[in-house]
Every structure is written in structure tokens, then in C-alpha cells.
Amino acid sequence: QVQLVESGGGLAQAGGSLRLACAASGRTFSKYTMGWFRRAPGKDRGFVGATSWNGGTTAYADSVKGRFTISRDNAKNTVYLQMNTLKPEDTAVYSCAASERPFLYGSRWSDPREYDYWGQGTQVTVSS
Predict the structure, then answer these.
(1) What is the pLDDT of residues 105-127, one digit of tens each?
(2) How far is CA 70 from its chain centroid?
(3) Quick check: helix, strand or coil at residue 107?
(4) What is the pLDDT of residues 81-94, one digit of tens each?
(5) CB–CB of 87/81 below 8 Å?
(6) What distances in angstroms separate CA 117 from CA 13, 21, 65, 76, 97, one per listed residue?
(7) 75-111 burial, b for 16+ CB within 10 Å, e for fewer?
(8) How far apart are the two ends of the chain, measured CA to CA in Å?
């Protein structure tokens, strides 16, 4: 079992930045694909981005490409989501997820069914 705990959420102004962190338990973190998803009020959960087991490959939703960056520190069992140039439409609960597959291909990056473990989420609110 893997437990994921997100932190770093909060309130930001439009144009500002926040950095989320997701700390994982377990010794096999370095073998997992890690993803970030978000759920805005009244909307379905949506893909934000993901990174392969070693951080060598990343994938992003078009809506965040160029603004958000995913990185990971396998020595610390932690994955990060750096969010810059925030917009009010980025307001959501952000959750990290772990896939036991070290690498995903194509549309599988963004498919929640590919992820085996989920965190509880952290709220991000962006004011205009």
C-alpha cells in the first residue's frame, strides 16, 4: 500500500504562484508514475499532469502547459507541482495519484483508471 499526502494548497491571486507537494509512503515510490488531477466545483475530475518514474518524461493538460511544472525527488519520496501564472479557473481540489506502472503511453497518462493510489487532495483557490 502507498499513502499519499498533499500539501501546499491555499489562496493565491491571479498571476501568482503556488507549489504543491505530494509525499508518499513506501519504498517503491521511485518505480511509480505520479500524476496530478484536479476537481473544480461542479465539474468532473480532470488531468493536470504526470511524470514517469525517473522524471524523464512529463505530460500536461493543454490548459496548464507552459504554466505548471511537475518534478519529483525520489530520495524524498515526493512529487511537486509548481503552478505559475495562476488563473481563477485553476481553482480546484488538487490530488496526486500513483500508478504502479513506471511509464504510461499516450492517453493513458490522463486516464484516472491507470492510477492505483490517491491522496485526499488540497484546495487551491485563485482570486481575480
Answers:
(1) 889 999 999 999 999 999 999 99
(2) 7
(3) helix
(4) 999 999 999 999 99
(5) no
(6) 31, 16, 24, 18, 5
(7) eebbbbbebeebeeebbbbbbbbbbebeebeeebbbe
(8) 40
